[in-house]
Design a protein that fits this description.
Among the domains are: 123 residues, no CATH class; 125 residues, Heat Shock Protein 90 (2-Layer Sandwich), CATH 3.30.565.10. The protein contains eleven helices and five strands. Helix 3 packs antiparallel against helix 4, helix 4 runs parallel beside helix 6 and helix 10 runs antiparallel to helix 11. Strand 4 and strand 5 form a beta hairpin. It starts with 20 loop residues before the first helix and ends with a strand. The radius of gyration is 47 Å and the shape is rod-shaped. By secondary structure, it is of the alpha+beta class.
């Protein structure tokens, strides 16, 4: 079956082989007109052949009605039109059949062969008919008119439908190609939109994780030290007023530092969404992506703590009553801001865990500058019998946050208890 008519690209909804009802109606009308034409022409054919006129009418009507199947079997229609050409009938069938054949998806060699056969048959029949008219005296022209009239008539009845069919077929195939391309582009756009939504969701999750990590590092350490100093202040307020005053000053310093870091973090987030007061709110996905980008810029520009503040960090823990030692191996050099900040946060969170879970335990902080990496280790001994009066809750997110930070930079993180009953946190970060 070869779908070649106007309904080939339409939605399937017509009877039998027709794509649409209007195509079926058009073919019925064309077949009826062709049958009527061939029936009238069959009368003359019957007279010339010496057979009853009714036989010629029936033969012509049957031949003309073949046009009804032009969409399904265009080759059959053209062959029938060529077969009845010697009987000088079926002109409409020949024209419509050639158009349908040329507009179909059949190979060009088949279309060319059938069109050539139709042209040759039409030339021969028209030449015979014109010569008969000249012989009968109907036309008073020279012999040159016979080939001229035959070729002109044959080309006029063959070339226009053939060229129109080729044009319509090519245009239909082009439209189908464009439609398929549009559908493909629509599917690609839908996939891109889904991927963009996935990336936005990933950015939101990353931003939530980063904010939670920063909040934990800032709040947990500073507030833990404040709680430790507040407990010490409560214990010595009456016995040693001077020490109580020092502890109160330390608590104030810790609170101010925590507020300063929180303000810096919130400032980064406000710069990240890029929305001025009074402007229309932006989608959450855009805010998350912008905030993550702003945070990355802030780290790249060196904002936040680094290795230069490590001694001060250890000093704050010592001031809170921890017995802590800091040792540095090798010579430091300029590291990336993300590397320095991650190293600082690992040591900070490890000291916070010592305050929470091993108050009074001796702690050693080691920092080693190597050729292609920087290593840090925080190890504490088992806590003593005298426990701190400060009760510090733990959410269990500290070690997870440290691991996420280190792994994100391509480093290695290890933590766990020691054989002596203490706890060790180790991390190695690439120097680059």
């Amino acid at each position: 079956m070869t779908v070649s008519g106007e309904g080939g690209a339409g939605a399937r909804g017509g009877p039998w082989w027709w794509g649409r009802w209007r195509g079926a109606l058009l073919d019925v009308v064309l077949a009826w007109v062709s049958a009527v034409e061939c029936a009238f022409e069959g009368i003359r054919f019957a007279t010339d052949a010496g057979v009853p006129a009714s036989a010629g009418v029936v033969f012509g009507a049957l031949a003309g009605s073949v046009l009804l199947v032009r969409r399904k079997w265009p080759i059959a229609v053209v062959l029938v039109s060529i077969a009845v050409t010697p009987a000088q009938m079926g002109y409409l069938m020949g024209v419509v059949g050639l158009y349908t054949l040329a507009a179909s998806e059949l190979p060009r060699r088949i279309i060319g062969a059938l069109a050539g056969m139709s042209l040759v048959g039409m030339v021969i029949v028209m030449a015979v008919r014109v010569r008969q008219d000249i012989t009968r005296g109907t036309l008073d022209l020279g012999d040159w008119f016979v080939p001229f009239a035959a070729i002109t008539t044959a080309v006029g009845l063959t070339a226009p439908p053939l060229l129109l069919g080729l044009y319509v077929g090519a245009r239909r195939r082009l439209m189908e190609s464009l439609r398929e391309r549009a559908d493909s582009l629509e599917r690609e756009l839908q996939l891109l939109a889904e991927r963009a939504e996935e990336r936005a969701e990933w950015a939101r999750n990353e931003e939530r994780t980063r904010i939670a990590r920063e909040m934990h590092d800032v709040v947990a350490h500073r507030v833990s030290l404040m709680v430790v100093h507040a407990a010490a202040l409560q214990a010595v307020a009456r016995k040693d007023p001077e020490k109580a005053v020092r502890n109160a000053a330390l608590v104030g310093d810790m609170g101010r530092q925590a507020l300063t870091e929180l303000r810096e973090m919130l400032g980064v987030l406000r710069r990240g969404d890029g929305a001025e007061p009074g402007e229309r709110s932006v989608p959450l996905a855009a805010v998350g992506v912008a905030a993550a980008a702003a945070a990355s810029r802030a780290v790249a520009e060196g904002e936040g703590p680094g290795l230069a503040e490590l001694a001060e960090l250890v000093g704050q823990s010592a001031a809170a009553g921890m017995v802590v030692e800091l040792s540095v191996e090798g010579e430091g050099r300029g590291y990336a801001a993300a590397v320095e900040q991650t190293a600082y946060r690992v040591v900070q969170e490890a000291l916070t865990n010592v305050h929470k879970h091993a108050a009074g335990a001796k702690t050693r902080v080691r920092l080693a500058h190597r050729g292609a990496e920087i290593a840090m280790q925080v190890e504490n001994e088992p806590p003593g019998e005298v426990a701190s009066s400060a009760r510090l809750p733990s959410g269990g997110n500290g070690l997870l946050g440290m691991r996420e930070r280190v792994v994100a930079l391509g480093g290695v993180f290890v933590s766990g208890p020691t054989d002596a009953g203490g706890f060790r946190v180790s991390a190695v970060l690439p120097a680059g």
